[in-house]
Design goal:
Low-confidence stretches: none
Number of strands: 7
Shape: extended
CATH class of one domain: Mainly Beta
Oligomer: single chain
Pfam family, one: NusG_II
CATH topology of one domain: mini-chromosome maintenance (MCM) complex, domain 2
Mean pLDDT: 88
InterPro entries: NusG_2_sf
Number of helices: 2
Structural class: alpha+beta
Strand order of the largest sheet: 2-1-7-6
Keywords: Membrane, Transmembrane, Transmembrane helix
Radius of gyration: 20 Å
Length: 120
C-alpha cells in the first residue's frame, strides 16, 4: 500500500469513530417504553417499574416485559416470531417492531419538553 492509501484509510476510520460517538454513543437511557399498534399509542410503560403487558391486536398478541430498565418482547404468536428474537432495548430512540401485528415498541425520554419561560 502506498502512504496516501494508509492516510485515507486512517481518515475514514477516524471519521467513522466520530460519527459513532456523536450519534450512537451519546444516546441516553430512556424513561418509558411507548407501545403503538397501527400507529396508535396503546400503552406507555415506565422503564423504572418492572411489569409485563400483553398487547392484543386483531392479528394476534405480543407480550412486552419491562425488567431492570430494559424493554423486551418475550412472547408473540406472529408467524415469524422475529420481534421476540430482537434484542432488548433501553436507550432513547431504540425500537422493537412486529410487522405482522403492526406493533412497535419505542423508547422515549421520560420527561416532556416544555417551555420554561417566555421572554418578550
Amino acid at each position: 500500500m502506498k502512504r496516501l492509501d494508509l492516510i485515507l484509510i486512517a481518515g475514514v476510520l477516524v471519521l467513522a469513530g466520530i460519527i459513532y460517538l456523536v450519534f450512537l454513543g451519546s444516546a441516553e437511557d430512556g424513561g418509558k417504553a411507548v407501545i403503538t399498534v397501527d400507529g396508535q399509542v396503546v400503552q406507555e410503560l415506565p422503564l423504572d417499574e418492572d411489569t409485563t403487558y400483553q398487547v392484543d391486536t386483531p392479528e394476534g398478541y405480543n407480550i412486552v416485559e419491562i425488567k431492570d430498565g430494559w424493554a423486551d418482547v418475550i412472547e408473540a404468536d406472529c408467524r415469524d416470531g422475529l420481534c421476540a428474537d430482537q434484542k432488548r432495548i433501553h436507550k432513547t430512540g431504540e425500537t422493537i417492531v412486529c410487522l405482522p401485528h403492526k406493533m412497535v415498541v419505542t423508547i422515549e425520554a421520560g420527561t416532556e419538553n416544555t417551555v420554561d419561560a417566555v421572554v418578550g
